[in-house]
Amino acid sequence: MVVYTEAGEVLLLRRTQPADFWQSVTGSLRWGESPVQAARRELYEETGLMAGNQLLDLRHSATFPIIPPWRSRYAANAFYNREHWFSCQLPGRRIIRTNRHEHAVYRWLKPQQAVNAASSWTNRAVIRWIFSHC
Question: SS3 for 27?
Answer without folding.
Answer: coil
